[in-house]
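fold-stage: in
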Amino acid sequence: MTERPSGDFKPDQSRTEHIEEDHSKKFSPSKLDTYKDCPRRYRYHYVDRIRRKTGTAEAFLGTCAHAALEKLYAGLAHGKRLSLAETVQTFEEEWDSGWSADVEIKHKEYSPENYKSVGRECVRSYYEEHSPFDEDKTVAVEKRLGFPLDSAGICCRIEGLVDRLALAADGSFAVHDYKTGGSLPTQQDVDADWQLAIYDIAVRHNWPDARDVRLVWHYLRFGKTLTSVRSAQQRSDLQKDIAALIERIKHDHDFPPHKSALCDWCEYRDICPLWMHAEKVKAMTLSQLRHDEGVKLADQFADI
């Protein structure tokens, strides 16, 4: 489900801060979540289509762990069960071939090997907990699922990638999502989560005879699995909320930045009006700092 931006971009400083409308008709859960977190980051990524090479070590760890589990379950679907060593090796190969200087380590006290060790342990513990993998039958891995949705008279497509879709013996579906982050939510948190619930609607749209749909989160660092289900009313309310959010996006002409803890992980700080001066100052030499007008003003204010 993780989008990996690529390419570099030098923004045109003369471009206007006002745009008429986002003409998108396809929205993924992560795309919608980006707007909810920060409309300005949404604009940079999805409207202006500014792509950055940078990515964090945390995101890269997740990508490699997902690749290892994807290969594991793809093999099982074809009658081939990879060993623990082979599955961990897939993670190692993904890491070694993909790591580069573009991967940013936010917490400087940790090394690439520290992150690699965490990822390796995530894969190992998941394998040992779920082997021999006969709890259900894998329908697909990295499956693109979606459904149509009307928003203010505009037919949109809500679509994204499911980490793993499985079918239980009782005919119910399970949407599995792998998390490698360092925080563990509560049951109340996942019961209120709207991202994975979107795939509940998508499964029922694609398989109308689905007996039930379970939403399953695997928190790999903690060896913890949380499960949630949605009622018909909750699914109906969610579709209304998504339609309203899309309408809000399409009427947003300014995409204002939203300051939060997520700013520390944003790849657009150097062009964001909330952070661009701080990023500029961070890269200056001592001599340049002495001549910067913003720094001079701050010094004068401090003297006062």
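fold-stage: in (second)
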Amino acid sequence: MPSPRILIALCTYNERQNVELLIPQLRAAVPEADLLFVDDNSPDGTGKYIAEVGAVDPRVKLLHREKKEGLGLAIRAGFQYAVDQGYDLLVNMDADFSHPPAVTPQLIAATQDADVVIASRYVHGGGVVGWPVQRKVMSWGINTYVRILLGLKTRDNSGSFRCYRVALLRRADLSKVRCKGYAVFEELLFRLKQAGATFQEIPYTFEERRFGTTKINMQEAFRALSNLALLRLRGE
């Protein structure tokens, strides 16, 4: 049986310092995977650096977007690339080292038993390092709200560190995804549940980013909650 074609997708905006360190670690952890960076025309030269690496290593690919239009659209672009290019598995992760490259092989291996594997902060063995109390409370509240609102049984629904069977992404029809911000991750789980996906969570420890500043805030969190409520009210 042939090995699955694996794509690791990462959305970037001003992540050059992180990316320079991350690429070799991912190539070492999952040498058989292709790396796709969806870059929103980063002013710090992130996209330019990735293009230079890709000129030497064809497994490193750049999807350049002319402007920053929201994380949801960037995620959809990366996922659609996986569908269009016929990959079997798609790993989505952040490019700031909050998602350890060493966990990626475990995510991939777990797809033998599930269509969607979530690296979870909220199952036994998982956790968070470096968060203030208010961010922990915000994350707990969002995940509780989402489980009730969307009928999800998984515990970590707001994280982005996951591995998907691309066949399920194709069945779920990515063109239906509406959320443009961080709520895209919860919406994806909801639509995949509707498409009949099976889920599994494996523990990991989230650590704060190494370089740069986080792009999530309370305003974005409340916008995400509103978007998810509208999704549910529309009954999509």
